[in-house]
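Handout, page 2. Input:
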Amino acid sequence: MVLRKLSILFLLLCATTVARASTILIPMDDKQSDHLKAYGIAYWVLSNEIDAWWLLNYRGGSFAFTHSRAFERECLTRGVKYEVIPDAQFNAILAEIADPERNMDAMKLEKAPKIAVYTPEFNFREGSKVQPWDDAVTLVLTYAEIPYETVYDDEVLKDRLAEFDWLHLHHEDFTGQHGRFYRSFHTADWYRRQVDYLEETAARNGFEKVSQLKLAVVKKVREFVGGGGFMFAMCSATDSYDIALAADGVDICAPYYDGDAIDPNAQEKLDFSRTFAFENFKLQRNPLEYEFSDIDHNPRNVSQDQDYFTLFEYSAKWDPVPTMLTQNHNKTVKGFMGQTTAFRKSTIKSSVLILGENKPADEARYLHGNFGEGFFSFYAGHDPADYRHLVNDPETDLSLHPNSPGYRLILNNILFPAAKKKKRKT
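Output:
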């Protein structure tokens, strides 16, 4: 890796006069052949200690960086469309972006964030070494060739999160109710192994219950975010995370999950001041229902052919963070389901930004907020390229969806921590 970096730097120093006076522009509008791999190129450039530009709202949120033959070859190898433009033309683009009348901004990207994915590494699926569902973030990171490390309960409790800039949580149940899969899957081999593994992990770390283990993990994640980290969550990791925080010290697990009864006054004992995004929600008291609370907008009166959500348009110069997180070549994104499919707006705190919504259905799909010195994003649904992904369905092949607007939102969050911090103008 060190030799590869040195060779790239050498190529940059030894480039021709034309190359030195040139910029590579990666367009992110409809002309881009592979939007997802384009993020991987931007990350790769940063990992070679070369700064890049993220041109917010310019041609779908394009990327730009100093021209080199090595970077050009990488774009060709990965099938990413690019343009080599003279520096004078790039400076004209920057001048256009700087125009106060244009809703654009140029964001400097300086450092490739170190990424952690919270995921187990034990055998869930019969005959394999993976869970019985895929994870949209690990799928797109792998496809875009962006490196990441995996952590789970043991690593989190040993304070390994301090090694990372960015943490992803996906189809996880932080309430200790094993995903509420009991009714449908309690006899399945993968479910029994999941329960056994988590109970062993809890005991190994000094906890009597899985719910206590997960609460300790949730608190470590809260420390990570409060100290300046970035947490991105999808599907059931969104609402179950906040429910666990609100229920600190309250037993909300039925005997199916922890061997003893639910606190009959659990609802009244919830403390919403502890949560990141949600408040005033009602717990689902039926322990066999595949639902945690009324945060999830269920039932939904939305048919599959009309299930879309719209991204908000923010002022790039005044609100660069939400602008970065909503960069896309389409502002209308096809919806997709999950254990947590959409957020009921009445349960969202007023301090939290709604980045994407299905307005006719009065539901939010994509949220962002601050906690302490850090940030979090909650993205509802399981797989942006698979409308109704079921347990034991095969993994999504992202080579069939290289221009997915839904997957682009995940990658926006990946690059967000690389941005040079600007003072907020409001």
